[in-house]
Amino acid sequence: xxxxxxxxxxEQRIFDAAHETFLHKGFDGAKMQxxxxxxxxxxxxLHYYYRTKEKLYEAVARAIIxxxxxxxxxxxxxxxxxxxxxxxxxxxxxDLILKNPYIPLFIxxxxxxxxxxxFDKILPKELPKPELIFRQIESEIAAGRIRPIDPKHLIINVxxxxxxxxxxxxxxxxxxxLSAEEMRALLEARKHEIVSFVMASLRP
Amino acid sequence: xxxxxxxxxxEQRIFDAAHETFLHKGFDGAKMQxxxxxxxxxxxxLHYYYRTKEKLYEAVARAIIxxxxxxxxxxxxxxxxxxxxxxxxxxxxxDLILKNPYIPLFIxxxxxxxxxxxFDKILPKELPKPELIFRQIESEIAAGRIRPIDPKHLIINVxxxxxxxxxxxxxxxxxxxLSAEEMRALLEARKHEIVSFVMASLRP
DNA sequence: GTCTATATTCCGATAGAC
DNA sequence: GTCTATCGGAATATAGAC
Lengths: 204, 204
Description:
Two copies of one chain form a homodimer. The first copy, chain A, is 77% helix and 0% strand. Chain A is an all-alpha fold and 204 residues long. In chain A, helix 1 (10-29) crosses helix 6, helix 5 runs parallel beside helix 9 (151-167) and helix 9 (151-167) packs antiparallel against helix 11 (180-202). Chain A starts with 9 loop residues before the first helix and ends with a helix. The first copy, chain A, binds a DNA duplex (18 and 18 nucleotides) through residues 10, 31-33, 41-49, 51-53.
């Protein structure tokens, strides 16, 4: 309900600047000087509030992860039908990434480049549990309402189709010859396209 | 007259070491010292052969791109049926990434972090042209052999399902609770799963 | 061509005045 | 709390001996 008011405290300004910088450039690419400039303060203050670059990064990376993970769990753990759940998940996820287009690359990239740091210091929270949705898929198959399919692959397919186009956006634009606005519309349209595509595939 | 035989030439050793290093760490994360160590030579020699880190990176990045792009074009521009083309594409692509698992992250990550450099210095080659496959999809729809679907989304769906699981491999392993070998088997199995999934969706 | 040594720049971090 | 000044180390790059 209540977000942190943090009117324009220096600490908050630093955090926001670091968020912006780390999100776009990753840990290696981000420089403390750039964060200080963006926050409109001196480099020394970064260390006053956050001691080291690592600790500042940890705070930011945790916040970035939090943006995505918990809200997805709500959809997956609800008691909607499989089709409704799929629809909600796809819409929710794509809208989220449309508003925060750098999050997927940040997570993927940082987790691959600094796996130990990420798993130890950033991620140790409860991840989405797939068991519930697995069981739901299997019972739909048993009831003959959808064709037989390995739930793991189904989940991977859906998430892949939602997230990957954002990662590949610059290349996709180039290959398909689309303007920035056309590309955005295409990504937006995928909310419906993915649901149709998956439901068509699941017909018994 | 004399082409580069490069059997174990110093230049080749440097190139290989740089390839390894840039592929795993990207431009910002890679250090010239590490490349020199890996090549078993001195830092100064890197500059003797390649002048700057940028130029060494350009040479390596071009080679990495070449690994993937041209071979894909061969499949897409062949005269196979749509289903055969899909099958060949998926098998080819997944096998390629299984053998070179760091390529997708390298391309995605570097193109997003250094887009100007990448588009100016690395990419200016002929990219796969989608028109041919688009027309093939549309004629299959017109003939009633597959259901109506926007070719752009179909292509994006297929590529997404092939590539994304490799990018998300560490997280997927964690969420699904798989060993490294189980995860590899899952990715291998996707060659058939993706084709089934797509063909099922395309049923009229 | 290959090395050692060094120049130069950059960056994270700290000291100390206010 | 915030600043200026600076340290110490790392990283890219060059000079010069062999």
